[in-house]
Protein 1
Amino acid sequence: AVKLYLRLQNADRDYEMSRRAFMEHTGSTQFPTLYQVKEAIAVLSSVQVVVHNMWVNSCVGFMGPFADFQHCPECGDSRWDPDKFKESQGMVKSSQKQFSTILLGPQLQAAFRDPTKAREMRYQQEYMQKVFEQLSRVPEHTQDIYNDFFNGTNYLKAVMAGDIKDKDILIMFSIDGMQLYQNKASNCWMSIWVVFNRSPDIQYKKEYVLPGIIISGPNKLKNIDSFLFFGFHHIAAIQHEGLLIWDAAREKLYTSNIFLTVATSNGPGLAYLNGFVGHHGQNGCRLYCGMPERHKEGGSIYLTKYPRLRNSTVSGSDHPDINPRHFACSSEMYMQNLAKVLLSWNETHYKQMRLQTGILKPSIFPGFPAGHTLGISVCFGSDVMHLLSLNLPNLLILLWHGILDCNSTNDT
């Protein structure tokens, strides 16, 4: 039954039909149901879904500081199903909605128990041997080819500093909202983990992408950290204590660890993760490089523009021409500016610091132990996919057809 389930392309849809056909062919009356085979796989793999309560309006999850709340801190709704609570005179407390977390540690352990998948996890070690051999041969310690994450400067610095070790598992976190149906309110949020130890040829294929959390909609999340808390706490615990791995390819038992390399989403989604003001703010860079942006007179949306606007006297946007090479991502700058925001003495001062620093709130990512991430804001990726495939083509097509909505002057 387990082999049948794993070999089906769409097991949830096809398993019961295959099960009935097998029973008719063999004359058997006993064959595990879909529920039973899923339970068996969960026991064999130790990979299980952990379910927690959330508010019905998708505001927050009952995790961390909200664990004992009886009412939503955002909308004020009751935590419990009002009908069941009323009928039982307050005796039955049943949550109105739940979300699911699939812990990363057991998924990684299960992957190493397969000899083929365990061998595939050696790609990072073998690639790094080639990189260091090349660096040792070149006097300037430069690389001829940059074709993988492992050629990056931030990664190599972490390796040389001893933060990333040979047996570490390198992961990328990604989260986004999605619409499941075209004509139905069905927005939900899902997160995934991508393991960088594997070759880029396979690491993004469906069977290798690991699920993280699944949050039902249709409303937008108001406190995403409360949903991420449980899964992130699990990873932080592994980073403190290590993860026991049985490598079926080497037939060895050893302690590994998890290193968080990249966390990414689309533009609005990443603002949930990093706590920045977003790409329309005065300091709206996703990578927090510190480059100030500009806005037009009377406007409130900031845009990236290197040269100063002609004859512009708009306060906060009249700075000289910008050379982007003078700016770089800095975790130290982020921590210094975060302290300014946290030390705001009233609402007015907080808004001033928010505009000045580009930080809306603390991110959950500094909760990971030092030396197990590339640091804030270096770990947050840029949104190249939407820039090249959606944003720029849309503007260029309108410009080429002469129908781009813009002001009368080219500068603005």
Protein 2
Amino acid sequence: MSVMARALFPRAWVRKSFYFQARISFVRVKYLFLTWLAVLVGSWVLYGQYSTYTELCRGHECKAAICDKYKRGVIDGSACISLCDKETLYMGRCLSTLPNNQLGEEPEPRGREALPPVFDKPTRGTSVEKFREMSKLGEQANLASLVSQLLIVADGNKDGRVSLPEARSTWALLQMDEVLLGILLQDHGHTPRLLGFCGDLYMTEAVAYGPLYGLALPWPLAAWVPGGMQRSMDQWFTPSWPRKAKIAMGLLELVEDLFHGPYGSFLICDLAAARFGYTERHELRLTDVRAVVAEDAFRRAMRDRHCQVDGDCTFGTDCGTTCDAAGGRCREDPPRPNLAKACSVLKDYLLWGVPAGLGEELERQLVACMALGGGGGHCAAAPGQMNMEHSLILNNLKALLWRQISHTKDS
């Protein structure tokens, strides 16, 4: 062996040894990361299974308190017999562990489970007409149909009269905004139907699929996933495009129902996918009615709020106005209309996987929809013109989507 060969051999051996060690280190890091990921996901699954345990929601305590008041004749309702006498209704999966917002879910219906309030109103038994007067909801002529709906709900045993225990339960239910709004909207079929109640515990029909789109990642993983990748992953877990179009039409119809409806105007102040779901027939359901607020209530909240910058005038996630710096208060003008916010959500949802030849026209209409302005600002259109533009864009979008799915089984 020459001197040069002897000199090169150690160098080659060192390079090979270094490459081998680097490869071993890479493999170790790879398997270490996969092991950590498996432990993380496994822990999350175990936590999810544990959170289904009813006692995490103190379901037994809440049920005992409700049933005690029912058996003593303090409260009554259409679900009390199933819950307390027959015990065929029970809470399954826990939806919230907050003490003041206890939520539970049964195998079929969905319900709210809350610590019982003091059922001290109303104080006397009353007929249907007297209950109508006591509730003061009938003083305005445009609320007559709502009063009728509330009285039908209050009459849990369907005997044509509202007993004192039924009245107490109904009064407690009406203190929760989501119940009243759910009753307002349920005739249109966009919210889960109210199935029964006992005290301030109420049950609604189950919604088969939720959230509206996307995959709910555990928060440790969500923090590591880039926003662009998360949006792409959200689109992977959506139905076929014709079914997405049908769900989108449901959202547009919900916006239409909330826009100057028989009970006034309402604003959707949280359009997150988690607030919505859809049925097996791909019909949209607003699963969290707390995302909706009456426009009058929004105006009152803004009128009483002090501010220094526009950021002080936010309401929920998707509602807000501007700050009047001179007066130090928020302006009352409504934010962007519901339709503009809905189109912002539908843009990525509908343009992903859109049929050939439709994408350009659909995107054009969605962009025009997103440009709709609210009632405030110096360049705001007159109310009549804004309403006409709103209706025109809404009808055009619905017609475009309907043409694409009217000949399919999904229609």
Protein 3
Amino acid sequence: MSRLGGIESEMSATPEVQQICDKVKLQVEQTTSRTFAVFVAKSFATQVVSGTNYFIKVQVGGEEYAHLKVFQSLPHAGLKLELHSVQTGKAADDPIVYF
């Protein structure tokens, strides 16, 4: 159950979360000045605000991971996606936390 303002527990990535990653991949590459041959969502957590913040753990190659914060607006605003921030240099066992 979503709790307004709080970040939910980490869950395994879904096809919908992978689609979100696919849509923001170019922005992530531009933000980090890197190109990722691998970009696979592994897990995620959400935060309900006036829309949804997705905190996503993405495997970006080998044992390297990145954490993404992506905002999705509400339906009346077009369900637009906006990359808010990226944390690189993460590992598979790094928990997803608010950033």
